[in-house]
Amino acid sequence: MALNTVKSVATWSNSTWHNAAPRGRVSVMEYTNLGRSGLSVSRLCLGTMNFGPETSEADSHAIMDRAHEHGLNFFDTANVYGWKKGEGVTENIIGNWFAKGGTRRERTVVATKLYGSMGDWPNETKLSALNIRRAADASLKRLQTDYIDLYQMHHVDRATPWDEIWEAFSVLRQQGKVIYFGSSNFAGWHIAQAAEAARTRGFLGLVSEQSIYNLMTRWVELEVLPAARHYGLGVIPWSPLHGGLLGGVLRKQREGGASRSASGRSADALEKYRDTIDAYEKLCAEIGEDPANVGLAWLLHQDGVTAPIIGPRTVEQLDNSLRAAELKLDAEVLGKLDELFPAPGPNGSKPAPEAYAW
Question: Residues in domain NADP-dependent oxidoreductase (predicted)?
Fold first, then answer.
């Protein structure tokens, strides 16, 4: 699905947005429609999962202010973020930021999610109509807003029928509590199921799918990306740098950093793919670009991708990510990246099912 993009100059001064010649920090941010919808979102999405566990509330507010300063209008969160069951730590941080005013809420497309457990009793998790109603009201209260722009199912619920899910979602939309709906971690056939069930109800259905997608994890290219393009869903990649392994991990280790990528599954993956990652970092050095920005830019070159999710822990990390939005990779570099990180399947350069069949 082709992306319709537009560039805009965004400035933030004294909590007010201006279109006139800026005084101070200026960013040129590119925007695109979220899937087939008319909703315009920035080509980078601010992920907030670090807000609370890794980043203080004050620093989180500074990051969100700087995001607006750069023209990022698309923020992603979830009711479970903060990882204290039932507390909605990250949503509360965002809600307190909205409450500061200065058109913060009006200038933000806020996406949140439900599915994960928010309590120890039945019906405090997944996608029953009861949990959808309760979870939406709780997120609205924490976010200190009267509507959610994009409400996403954090995972597929195999036990709840689509008729029940879409009826509950349609009530939220009729009440003005939610405008658009999306999915996350869906298989291609789940997207098809959801879309066709919505079609029978005359409902808009899904406008986005949030999937893990990066140079090292390209499985969505087999079925999810084609399904999303067919049904008009914008794809929002999470973990775009594969837990930091595509962010210059070897260089950072030499400099005494990269602690997040030096333990657990990231450490195992680093050892397994060390030679490939080393070649990747050398390629990035040859073209004079930071590996993290190359990884993000590669995603922005993929057909159907709306906005990779960046998850800065500091304002500086956010600032450093902005280069990705304007970085254009030529055919030669894209070809070398495909050689280093091949598409899945024995015939990965072809679409499914030819990628794995005749």
Answer: 43-340
